[in-house]
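Subject: design request, 280 residues
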């Protein structure tokens, strides 16, 4: 199943058509794309038998972030060995976790304002939590996942590394620095959700290409590690780390400029297209 946020309303996407959830369920479920994660089991039971034949075509430019207002955003650093190596660091067996702030979320076709400095790309698989997770074992971790989507952990490197200790959360939370989309795809849609390809393309040139099976800490490991410390809540999201090929790791380093097109793709989910624009 594919769930999308179409102009602020929750829809089920089937092929090239979208079905409005509130209308289709005759008001049983809200049109609010964020609210559905609080009743995920009830919703998915209903959705499996929903009649989607009356869906209507839609414009991809009307798609917004499928999870627009999570209570918690987690992000994982240095979760691919080759990425750690390209920036001169060592991947840690203990997940390096930070946060991105909710105000940085934007959609899969949104413009991203360039705040100045060294703005870098980081394509990431984003995991959406569908069931409260606390002290979850790795064998049960995927039972708590509602779905997967494409994300970019856009980073302004000067702010990120400014100060006595790195400012990861601030450097990665400028407006528009957390685009997500184009929709959420439930795990059952994948032959193996633990091994899918992801890539970043900048102005037509491939910059990143990797597979999620190369993660140092898998999705299940991340959920287990985090849930030992805190509750993962329905609708929370986890940016799971980026493969090698970021601008900081290039020789010489290369960064995004106003006018650049940033394309982010993940196998089995789809792509985002974000234009870098001047700050208004």
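Subject: RE: design request

Done. Sequence follows.
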């Amino acid at each position: 199943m594919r769930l999308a946020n179409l102009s602020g309303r929750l829809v089920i996407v089937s092929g090239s058509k979208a079905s409005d959830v509130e209308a289709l369920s005759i008001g049983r479920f809200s049109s609010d794309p964020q609210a559905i994660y609080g009743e995920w089991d009830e919703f998915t039971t209903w959705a499996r038998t929903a009649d989607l034949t009356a869906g209507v075509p839609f414009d991809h430019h009307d798609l917004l972030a499928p999870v627009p207002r999570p209570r918690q955003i987690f992000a994982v650093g240095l979760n691919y060995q080759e990425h750690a190596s390209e920036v001169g660091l060592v991947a840690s067996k203990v997940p390096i976790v930070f946060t991105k702030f909710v105000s940085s979320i934007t959609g899969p076709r949104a413009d991203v304002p360039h705040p100045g400095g060294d703005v870098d790309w980081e394509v990431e698989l984003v995991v959406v939590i569908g069931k409260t997770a606390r002290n979850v074992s790795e064998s049960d971790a995927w039972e708590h996942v509602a779905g997967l989507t494409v994300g970019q952990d856009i980073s302004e490197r000067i702010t990120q590394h400014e100060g006595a200790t790195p400012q990861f959360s601030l450097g990665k939370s400028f407006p528009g620095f957390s685009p997500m989309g184009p929709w959420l795809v439930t795990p059952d849609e994948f032959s193996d959700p633990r091994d899918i390809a992801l890539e970043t393309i900048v102005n037509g040139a491939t910059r990143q290409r990797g597979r999620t099976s190369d993660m140092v800490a898998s999705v299940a490991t991340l959920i287990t590690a985090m849930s030992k410390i805190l509750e993962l809540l329905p609708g929370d999201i986890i940016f799971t780390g980026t493969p090698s090929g970021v601008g900081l790791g290039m020789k010489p380093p290369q960064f995004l400029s106003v006018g650049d097109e940033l394309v982010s793709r993940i196998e089995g989910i789809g792509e985002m297209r974000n234009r870098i624009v001047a700050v208004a």
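The chain is about 10% helix and 30% strand.
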